[in-house]
Amino acid sequence: MSKLKYLSAFLLAATVYVSFTNVGIWTYLPLLFSFGLIPLVELLFKPDAKNLSEEEKKKAATDSYFNLVLYAVVVLQVAFLIYFLMVIQENLTTFDLIGRIVSMGILCGIFGINVGHELGHRSNRFEQFLGEILLLSSLETHFLPYHNSGHHHNVATPKDPATARKGEIVFLFWFRSQIGSYLQAWKIENDRLHKKGKSFLSFSNKMLIYTLSQIALLAAIYYFFNLQTVLYFMAAAMIGILLLETVNYIEHYGLLRQLKENGNYERVQHHHSWNSNHILGRTMLFELSRHSDHHYKASKHYQLLDSMPESPQMLTGYPGMMLLALVPPLWFKVMHKQLALFNRRQINN
């Protein structure tokens, strides 16, 4: 059963299919499922902090099933994107049009960016390429250069635009994180090329290739469809990006690493990320909410991530906390109390 639980992510794909083949309220089924049903259910059930045993981890580490699930996500994401570009041509009401765009946007965020993130951490070039395909389908290709070489290095410090500061409103964070990450991605790539003695204008420049790939994708959509379809796709991708940034916001909100006397920050520890062991959000997001262990060892595959007792825990799953973040006064009231409790526990320890 522990293996099969990750198939629950494909329930999202099923709801998107319903959205694309129906009209009316059904076009909003992915939204109602992801940010209605799941948060509600997670309020009713206790979190599950159980980790795999060492023997189970050895088996899971070599079990190709877990990779095949991710590969299936890639196929579905590409297929649904093509299907979206086709069904959005139908004579739809504004209500139905928005519903289908939102549905594609949720898929871009959960399948495109989230699974692209998982595959982007792999050492296998083929899997990295699949991650790039997913991120391209969400117009977020700069994510990998910054996330892997910037965010993981600077997380929980003022240097990281993807770490939310205490008291920062999520709507402002969206812009600071996305723009800051994009600019730093170019700087990181430029520095990498400089160290290798490579020209900025070369095929070795990942950011240049990523940018041209996104332009080519938009141009292809325009060629085969029309400008209106390009705008619909860009709107869907933007929704996916906002989902990413909302997750970024809740993952490290208000947490800071200590600055040492030598001017360097302490090593990233398990207490520098907010976590959730609520099972539905965990499996739907491929264990993203066991975020502390991911930052502690970024190469660790999703099925092997552990829940650590020293990690700060959220009151519910990531989907529910994302909704809470959209109401800043409530978010501050809840999270500042959680921060105070966590800081008190750190002092006592």
Give me a quick take on this structure.
By secondary structure, this protein is mostly helical. The chain is built from 14 helices and no strands.
Describe the protein's architecture and organization.
- It is a single chain.
- With 349 residues, the chain is mainly α.
- It has one domain (4-348).
- The protein is built from 14 helices and no strands.
- The chain has helices at residues 10-21, 29-44, 54-62, 65-87, 94-120, 125-136, 143-154, 170-196, 206-224, 227-251, 279-284, 291-296, 318-325, 328-348.
- It is globular and about 60 Å long.
- It starts with 9 loop residues before the first helix and ends with a helix.
Write the layout of secondary structure elements.
Blueprint: H1 10-21, H2 29-44, H3 54-62, H4 65-87, H5 94-120, H6 125-136, H7 143-154, H8 170-196, H9 206-224, H10 227-251, H11 279-284, H12 291-296, H13 318-325, H14 328-348
Helix pairs in contact: 1-2, 1-4, 1-5, 2-5, 2-13, 4-5, 4-6, 5-6, 5-10, 7-8, 8-10, 9-10, 10-13
Please name the defining characteristics of this protein:
349 residues; mainly alpha
Approximately how much helix is present in the residues?
A: 55-70%
Distance between the termini: 37 Å
* Uncertain ranges: none
With helices defined by DSSP (H or I, 4 residues minimum), what is the helix count?
14
Mean pLDDT value? 95
